[in-house]
Task: inverse folding
């Protein structure tokens, strides 16, 4: 029986057997987007007309891929031809591009059906936002509890996917924007290696750190979507020519555990869930080993790089007359100040990035790393983050700075809201991330639990 | 991570959102001069609201600490930033 939480493979199988049509799936998701999606402020723009056209075409043709006829939503930073792409920003309310982002083209070629643009933190939060309300449609609310924030900046992608409003979604991450909404909504999100997915047509916040990837309801779904959107693109000079292969074989990867995890923390529920997840993985035959990263200011470097590149990417807007339309005044202050970053500071950060390559030494001891996504469930959607983001932990290592892939997935619950963990792997080893996450989801059911609307 | 982090620490250490921050004029901050609000404001199309000015001041104060902390991490002499300029060959108009 196909329903809103069905997996991609289940929907594909039902479509092939003509048990359901793509039009029916599309209508089901559109209905949920119009109710649940809007209630959670997760929808930036419904693309109903296009969706029904694509669904009818999918029903009338042979399946081109596992995504053929599957409805999806895209974070509103992906350019979509002749459909508004507002980057979550009130200052970009009338922005429409005459072309598609490469990922959107790939999904169209695969036969997938675009049902909605999904809401996001304005300009992907590049100006140091401090409230969940830093978004054109208001605070995006967690799929599990409307008092909680859905996370950012791929807020709508995380919430809509977990709410069963789309078959799958696309998000993006500069430093946490796939992992955070996946954790806060109990979704499974895949941040690929930097360059694995073309950035062409996606809003730039930070050219050297931005990654595009799927947010789905399972690791298996993430793999199917990543296969469809990855690949070299002549329109993105940073895209990789190495072909993606997700078929991992050989001995089970050895899992590294970061020495500092939970040090001095008060996160009993998450700690228990994390160790429960580790037990499940050990029962599956995975060995673990303690690791430590070289002591370098990874986050300080990311801060400067994102600040400088973000100010440059959005300089026209910052200097323009719509700048102060941004929803969160913290973003106004942040972007304005970033205009003043010195070249010498940026280059210091980029030299730190070279030094950070030493962190690749951890891969001599292990094949992947398992960390909690955060130490707690989602924070309040109403209070400023500087009052609520307390002892949240997270991955403070070099993974984003070095463009390593990570897959984030639910590992438990705290007071009825999901908490997550993530598997990080060396560059180009998405197969390792996927293998471990799929194995974990084969023997656990956290990813199969859904919010009751 | 301290129990009450600044917004900067939230965004960077906790990897919220697409993480970024404003790192304003370090030269002014480092030299202990007044925050260069006017200089920043002149670059904008319209004056900042009083609240934005206040937040900008806060952000600049935070940068003062970040700027001095940055200098504690010594880089090796002759190290390079993590990017390389690649030349783009073009077809020669005349055969060599």
Result:
């Amino acid at each position: 029986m196909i329903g809103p939480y069905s997996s991609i493979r289940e929907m594909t199988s039902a479509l092939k057997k003509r048990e359901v049509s793509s039009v029916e799936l599309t209508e089901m998701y559109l209905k949920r987007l119009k109710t649940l999606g809007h209630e959670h402020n997760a929808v930036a723009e419904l693309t109903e007309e296009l969706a029904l056209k694509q669904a009818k075409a999918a029903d009338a043709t042979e399946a081109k891929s596992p995504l053929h006829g599957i409805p999806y939503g895209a974070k509103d930073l992906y350019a979509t031809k002749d459909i508004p792409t507002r980057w979550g920003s009130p200052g970009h309310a009338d922005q429409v591009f005459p072309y598609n982002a490469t990922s959107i083209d790939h999904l169209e070629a695969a036969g997938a059906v675009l049902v909605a643009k999904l809401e996001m933190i304005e300009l992907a939060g590049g100006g140091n936002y401090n409230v969940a309300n830093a978004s054109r449609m208001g605070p995006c609310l967690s799929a599990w509890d409307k008092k909680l924030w859905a996370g950012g900046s791929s807020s709508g992608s995380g919430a809509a996917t977990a709410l069963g409003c789309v078959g799958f979604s696309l998000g993006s991450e500069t430093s946490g924007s796939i992992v955070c909404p996946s954790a806060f909504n109990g979704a499974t999100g895949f941040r690929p290696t930097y360059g694995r997915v073309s950035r062409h047509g996606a809003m730039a916040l930070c050219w050297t750190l931005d990654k595009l990837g799927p947010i789905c309801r399972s690791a298996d779904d993430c793999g199917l979507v990543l296969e469809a959107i990855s690949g070299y693109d002549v329109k993105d000079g940073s895209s990789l020519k190495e072909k993606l292969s997700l078929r991992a074989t050989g001995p089970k990867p050895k899992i590294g555990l970061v020495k500092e995890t939970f040090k001095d923390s008060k996160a009993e529920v998450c700690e228990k869930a994390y160790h429960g997840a580790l037990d499940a993985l050990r029962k599956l035959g995975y060995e673990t080993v303690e690791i430590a990263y070289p002591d370098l200011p990874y986050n300080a470097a990311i801060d400067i790089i994102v600040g400088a590149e973000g100010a440059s990417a959005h300089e026209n807007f910052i200097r323009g007359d719509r700048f102060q339309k941004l929803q969160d005044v913290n973003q106004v202050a942040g972007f304005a100040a970033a205009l003043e970053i010195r070249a010498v500071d940026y280059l210091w950060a980029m030299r730190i990035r070279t030094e950070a390559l030493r962190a690749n030494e951890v891969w001599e001891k292990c094949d992947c790393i398992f960390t909690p996504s955060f130490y707690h469930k989602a924070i309040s959607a109403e209070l400023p983050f500087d009052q609520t983001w307390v002892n949240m932990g997270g991955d403070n290592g070099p993974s984003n700075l070095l463009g390593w892939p990570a897959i984030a997935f639910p590992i438990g619950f705290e007071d009825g809201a999901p908490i997550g963990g993530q598997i990080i792997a060396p560059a180009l080893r998405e197969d390792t991330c996927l293998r471990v996450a799929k194995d974990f989801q084969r023997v656990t059911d956290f990813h199969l639990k859904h919010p009751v609307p | 991570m301290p129990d009450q982090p600044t917004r900067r620490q939230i965004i960077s250490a906790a990897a919220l959102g697409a993480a970024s921050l404003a790192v304003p004029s370090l030269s002014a901050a480092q030299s202990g001069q007044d925050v260069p609000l006017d200089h920043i404001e002149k670059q904008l199309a319209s004056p900042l609201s009083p609240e934005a000015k206040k937040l900008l001041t806060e952000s600049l104060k935070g940068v003062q600490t970040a700027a001095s902390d940055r200098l504690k991490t010594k880089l090796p002499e002759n190290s390079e930033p993590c990017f390389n300029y690649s030349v783009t060959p073009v077809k020669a108009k005349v055969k060599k």
Q: What stands out?
A: Chain A has a mean pLDDT of 97.
